[in-house]
Amino acid sequence: MAIIEVNDLRKTFQTPQGRKVLAVDGVSFSVEAGECLGIIGESGSGKSTLGRLLLRLHEADSGSILLDGQDIRALVPRALRKQRRHWQIVFQEPFASLNPRLSIQQIVEEPLIVAGTYGSRTERRERVARTLEEVGLSAEFLDRRPANLSGGQQQRVGIARSLVTDPSIVVLDEPTASLDLTIRASILRMLGDLQRARGLTYLFISHDIETVRNFCSRVAVMHHGRFVEVGTARDVLEDPQQPYTQRLMAAAMPPLPFAASVGTMSTQAGNS
Amino acid sequence: MSLKVNDLVTEFATRRGVVEALHGISFEVGENEVVGIVGESGSGKSTVVRSVIRLLVPPGRVASGTVEFAGRPLLELRESELRAIRGKDIGFIAQNPFSALNPVLRLEKQFANIAKAHGVKADDGARRRAVDLLAATGVSDPERVIRGYAHELSGGMAQRVVIAMALYLNPRLVIADEPTTALDLTVQRQVLDTLRRLTVESGRSMLIVTHDLGVVNAYCQRVLVMYKGSIVEQGRVAEVFTAPQHPYTASLLSSASPPIEPAEAEVVPSQPLEVATWPSSK
Amino acid sequence: MSVQGLPGTSPGLRAAGWAQRGRALVLSRSNNALTVAAAVVIIGLPLLALVMPYPHSPLAPNPNAVAVAPNGTYWFGTDGNGMDIFSRTIEAAKLDLPISLAATALALVVGVPLGLFATSGRVGDVLMRVVDAFAALPTIVIAVVGIQLMGGSALDVVFAIAVVAAPRFVRLSRAAALSLRSARYVEAAVAIGCSPLRVAFNHVFRNAYGVVLVQATLTAANALGTIAALNFLGVGAKPPQPSWGGMISEGFSMLIRGEWWASAYPTLAMLLAIGSLNILAGALETRIERVERAR
Questions:
Q1: How many Å lie between the alpha carbon of A112 and the closest alpha carbon of chain B?
Q2: H or E, element range at C77
Q3: Which residues of chain B are within 8 Å of residue A217 when distances are taken between CB atoms?
Q4: What are the angstrom distances between the C-alpha of B236 and each of A170, A200, B216, B242?
Q5: How many angstroms separate the CA atoms of C24 and C188, rounded?
């Protein structure tokens, strides 16, 4: 059974000038448990909004969202807060997403405190230490502040915070976009390991085709608030059917000279 | 030879003493050549550029080394002589176009200011040249755009305007510091194509600083790979990227397109690899 | 061990409770002489009033020593009723300072939560209009009217001044809440299921309390001035109960005759207290920065 089922989701924002912008315009999809669905889009495509609508960090205008079979749009605020530990998110900017005044211990422990069902202080602390170890951070980090960590370490903390309550669904909103290449690779490898070890379901939002190609089994291409193409990563990225996807792939610049599908520079971009 | 940097050492004075940021950098950018400097954050790639055109902000300073541009020693010139070169013979394109544009001046006024600063008469001909350049960079309706303000532009359009300004006085060398990092993929491609067309294809040289190996691969002839303030490897892009000699280059390349398929990937024990661990070549 | 309180070197700050935070703020090693002196004035003056054996009673007039210039017996001289200025100046601190501090504390306790939660919705809008209206009126007028209506006890003065000062805290904490509402870590806090209350205090206020505390200290200084002004106008403390403003007012008539001491000494005491609070505000500002970065 699909663990995420989204049907005809819509969201309109109003700009400060009063203009209405359709951020998400009738999106439907489902994700099987243990799967990773990649969502590719450029800025303004609505991909980040979609991730936030899914977890009800923003309220959708219409449409339905079933997570673990629960209609999350029907939950009252209190019930929603109780359930949040099952559905988590990792943000793009690792430093900005960590409260600068809290220690790493406090940051990772907070979801457990809020949920209130993870035993005593000692048990919680053990769990925090265990989770941090899983993301590759030793106990020496417990007392540190986010500002004293490198970008990669900060993102590991962000990941630990989202995993500490043992969620089933994790939205990864460009989790490596602001990280350096070598660190990006190690974080992605770790996220992959965690997914297999814990049977996590990922919604992986990214603008980077290479990353999605390597990380996701299924891909949706988003443009102007809609899914223009959905399919296996191989089908969509190697043999795109829609003009927009084709344009996107033509603009991609693979790092290796021999990599497939490199257009000669200026011939493919621009037209259509 | 257009630009020749020899044994450049740049240091920063901090509370804990002087820290060397560049440990003796040497490279050249030839006539009509596009060279990429690639590296991760903290590698010193932007510091190289700022040292070369003397835009280092204190406490940073160049401690030793020489920079020669068209036969003139840039580091020894007086500030006024240098200003005459910057913007005229060397065009500079920064990462964030909006920080390079004045928010309260019409763009035509900004073009005129550039001309005047270098003793060029800002007459109708100069203005027409600005409009033509904007058109050449792919700005649609340049006559309207040049009468407007920076905030009316999208990121991609603003970067095109900045490119047009950098090229306005026909510089021989264009230095671009992460020129498209803030832009979307499709826009990035268009802007880089424009830049390429207006520089190399018009006989200019270009130095691009970037963290994106794809940009280097698609647009540069030679590449310098920087790591912790040193150039660890330099050479022709095709050679460096296919047969990297330095382990850091190899790890960078393997990180850019990790050879893992999600389904059949082997389980790698997760360990903190914050700084690149050298992979034994694979 | 930290010698100058450099970042990352204070083992005592590891556990992050508010209690430790407070202790760290007070016991920071970087106390300079001026800050210590200011703290001594603010804490010491009322204490002195409580425990000190006065050379003369602050409340009992001596008809044989009216308007005596400062001398060996009456250090600050006596006023028009023959009461000892020195004793009265100290005694006034016992009332003026606690009133200003209590009023500030009350304003803080009421204003901060209102500001944190009045960020949206109709209730918030209405509240802000009320706050704006209050801020537009001259504080002293509201205070005078309020105190007259309530009766004029010390507690009434506390209430009146708190009402006048609270809008500042509402605004300050509302501004913090608004600017931090879109902060990524606040969104993250919502995403892990934090209640609005927890978000407001653990994430928003925690990153803004420095400004609020500094503002509070300045407000206390301000309140001292307001209290003095009220007493000068005859609102608040009833004679013979001494207050700085009241004493200045009484001494005014003597000034014309060149008898400067009756007004001068309470004025000095008031300026000393206000100046001390301002110094403390400055010290607090730098210290909060240091404590919050020290981990």
A1: 24
A2: none
A3: 262-263
A4: 42, 43, 11, 10
A5: 28
Rounded-to-integer distance, Cα B262 and Cα A192, Å: 7
What value of ipTM does the predicted structure carry?
0.88
Residues composing chain A = 272
Query: Domains of chain A by range and CATH?
Result: 2-99+169-252 (3.40.50.300)
Contact B224, B36 (CB under 8 A): yes
Whole-structure pTM value: 0.79
**Torsion B41-B45-B48-B54 (CA) sign:** negative
Count of CB pairs separated by less than 8 Å, A with C: 77
In a domain, B21, yes or no: yes
State how far the Cα of A193 lies from the Cα of B270, in Å rounded to an integer.
Answer: 8
What domains are defined for chain C?
58-285 (1.10.3720.10)
Query: What pLDDT digit, counting tens, does each position of C140-192 carry?
Result: 888 888 888 888 788 888 998 998 889 989 999 998 888 888 889 999 999 99
Chains linked to A by 3 or more Cβ pairs within 8 Å: B, C
In a domain, B266, yes or no: no
Using the Cβ of C193 and the Cβ atoms of chain A, whether some distance falls under 8 Å is answered with yes
Length of chain B: 282
CA angle B174, B177, B182 (to 5 degrees): 125
The total number of structural domains that make up chain B? 1
Q: What is the pLDDT of residues B104-161, one digit of tens each?
A: 999 999 999 988 888 888 788 888 889 988 888 888 888 989 998 988 888 888 988 9
What is the C-alpha separation between C115 and C168, in angstroms, rounded? 9
- Which of A149, A186, A103, A197 is CA-nearest to residue B272? A186
- B221 inside domain: yes
B254 part of contact set with chain A, CB < 8 Å: yes
Q: Show the DSSP H helices in C1-84 as ranges.
A: 18-27, 33-51
Asked whether residue C15 carries a pLDDT value surpassing 50, the answer given is no
As a whole number of angstroms, the distance between CA C115 and CA C128 comes to 9
Mutual angle of helices C244-255 and C85-117, in 10-degree steps: 130
Radius of gyration of chain C from Cα atoms?
22
- The residues on A that touch C, with CB distances below 8 Å, are 55, 57, 80-85, 88-89, 91, 93, 96-103, 106, 110-111, 114-115, 143-145, 147-148, 158, 161-162, 165
pLDDT tens-place string over residues A71-127: 999 999 999 999 999 999 999 989 999 999 899 999 999 999 999 888 899 999 999
Q: Is residue B266 within 8 angstroms of chain A, CB to CB?
A: no
Task: Find, among C216, C102, C121, the residue nearest to C169 by Cα.
Answer: C216
Asked whether the predicted pLDDT for residue C7 surpasses 70, the reply is no
Question: What is the per-residue pLDDT across A165-178, written as a single tens digit (0 to 9) for each?
Answer: 999 999 999 999 88
Q: What is the DSSP letter of B228?
A: T
Is omega for the bond preceding B59 within 30 degrees of 0, making it cis?
yes
**B75 lies in a domain?**
yes
C25 touches chain A (CB under 8 A): no
Q: Is C195 on the interface with A (CB under 8 A)?
A: yes
* CA–CA separation, B257 and A39 (whole Å): 19
Q: What is the CATH number of the domain that holds B181?
A: 3.40.50.300
Model confidence at C8: pLDDT above 60: no
What is the domain extent for residue B149?
A: 3-256
**Which residue from A82, A143, A158 is facing C193, i.e. has the nearest CB?**
A82
The CA–CA distances, whole Å, from A123 to A88, A128, A137, A175 equal 21, 9, 19, 29
Q: Which tokens sit at C269?
A: 């005491």
**Helices C261-293 and C209-232 meet at what angle, rounded to 10?**
170
The closest CB to that of C295, out of A114, A143, A165, belongs to: A143
- Is A127 or C28 the better-scoring residue by pLDDT? A127
A203 burial via Cβ count (<10 Å: 0-12, 13-18, 19+): buried
Query: What is the SS3 assignment for B57?
Result: coil
